[in-house]
Amino acid sequence: MRPLLTSRWAKPRSRRAKLHFRRAKLHFRRAKPRSQAALQADQANLRQGIEEIRNEQEHARQEADELRGEVQNIGRIITEMDQMFILRMKNLSLSWAAALTWPPGVVANLPAGYPTTPRGLLEMTIPMCDSISTALGLPAFPPRTPVMQRRERLMIHLGCLQLGPEIRANGLYH
Question: Quick check: helix, strand or coil at residue 85?
Fold first, then answer.
């Protein structure tokens, strides 16, 4: 069997192919050539569209980088919270004379003579409470805060909640 078309513009052999060939030929003849200015305008529009797409891609990359940074920051915060939770659970189960567990990296910033036992937390002075609060990264105490409220805030932060009832029962809280 011989092919219907031997080249692109060869005459077709079937009636249907002839009709299709005529339509294509008419369409080709009717197509108006575009001016150089119109082609240059189209080219400029395409370049502008490409530049807009590139700008959008760069903006999306920047947003993705920001989101990655936020996710990493949230992961770091969760890790710190987990470490503090574990520290508080350890300190919660301590007896009065057992050694306190401090957050990692804080011991170097603590003042000399810092408390090493839960009992020592009850003996802190106002300057000691202030310097420990600063070392732990807690907000500053309001002026004229009583020493027992300062101690209690630090005990709660460290997880020494077993001392709270003792403070109130013995009238040490004013």
Answer: helix
State the residue for tokens 């052999």: 13
Q: Alpha-carbon distance 73 to 79, whole Å?
A: 10
d(CA 128, CA 112): 9
Q: Please, what is the average pLDDT of the chain?
A: 81
Sign of the alpha-carbon torsion through 69, 71, 77, 82: negative
Q: Is the dihedral of CA 67, 72, 75, 77 positive or negative?
A: negative
Tens of pLDDT, residue by residue over 85-120, are 988 888 888 887 888 888 888 888 888 889 998 888
- Amino acid letter for position 18: K
d(CA 159, CA 163): 10
Instruction: Sort 148 into a burial class: Cβ within 10 Å, 0-12 / 13-18 / 19+.
Output: middle
In terms of residues, how long is the chain? 174
